[in-house]
Amino acid sequence: MSVLIVGAGPTGLLLAAELELAGIPVMLVDQATERSGQSRALSLQPRSVEILHSRGLLQPLLDDAVDQLPAGHFAGLPVTLDYSSWDTRFPYQLRIPQARIEQHLENHLAARDIAVRRGLELTGLAQDGSGVEASFADGTSMRAGWLAGCDGGRSAVRKLTGIGFTGRDGRMSAVVADVVLEDNRAESNGRWELPSLVPRDGAILTLVPLGDGVHRVLFTGPEQQLLTRSDPIGFDEVSDALSNWYGTGVVLREIRWASRFTDAARQADRYRDGRVFLAGDAAHIHSPTGGQGMNLGLQDAFNLGWKLAAHLNGEAPDELLDSYHDERHPVAAAVLANTRAQGVLMIPDDDIACLRETFLDLLRIPEANHRLAGIISGLGIAYAPGDHPLIGQRMPDLELADGATVAELLTTGRPLHLKGIAGAAQVLVRPDGYVLWATDDPDGQPDTHSSNASAVWSMASSSRSRMASSAAR
Known about the structure:
By secondary structure, the chain is of the alpha+beta class. The chain contains twelve helices and 24 strands.
């Protein structure tokens, strides 16, 4: 039974790759007639780097990356978040523009004879007991067994399904643009200060080099609050923002693209409606502060992909699909909360300045820094706990006695039953790398009354080739 994915951004592309890995027929469509080449997101957080590594998709991105950033930030404060405090092979953000990620994922799919059908605007959607019928503006229609809406914040899938999008409208407006600059500052030596979101004279500006002479600039100030999202972004608006921040030594030469955005925060009331799912920005929108949006969508796809594939392959009951909402909705709600908190710390107000100083003192405490690093990086995400401390946690990429690593064994998209690892007698690892069950009893078995546990145990035990059992070094 096939799956129709609407939206060919990073979320939709990764979901297609996950389903294809499991042998599920996929149709992938997008409203745009061609990829825009624009990159709203700039970095992969450590957890996203991990999941791509566990599917063998990382190396082309490493080869094409701009930089590796060993730390994150919270509200752009000058005390950075230490990713090395987490047990990961990738304690850094991988700076690579979204457009390059999309291109590599699309190339991966093309090599497996999956092409994006473009120029298809979804206008109708109906589902029954056996499938979903999608209608498009050009008069064509497609039928599939299931449909995933990965079509962005203005999701047609969400609207046509009637799923609520609860939250609040934006309270501030800002500009993001990719620009070409001439730096004539005598003291700069071509270097820029670390990106900061701390207000200065009522304004905020941050500048990030993207390579090849292009920079990403993000700014907001009193002028931007008087403009709407439909107001054009003029050359002078961007030039003035740069001059006010850096002085006349920084000259704007070209604007490659520019867009306005707000700090609106909304989340779909439910991620599943029958045979229809939402993922990525179709399910949640929030301020880009902290660089979490694209990563949140990729991890949605990673959670949904194996569950939908297991069900369609007859390895899991329908109830397993409900766990997608149960697990991912709280994760996105927490991201909406932390981005709103970061937004408060960026308000140009004397009392908020005192709050920032207090927050900076907290960030200097290793335990607090570790906690926030886990939130921003995604490494701290955990699902339902159990009667063993490993249950619900992300499984570290440990090396086994035979030299293989956990991530290498996960490239097949199958669960793992490991013995004598991470201080436990047995560990059952889901295809998305989270521990479903663990025990200190060498002869124990999971409680398979849970549809989740039953499905994964069955998948892990179905053949020897799908089972990795070895003592970790």
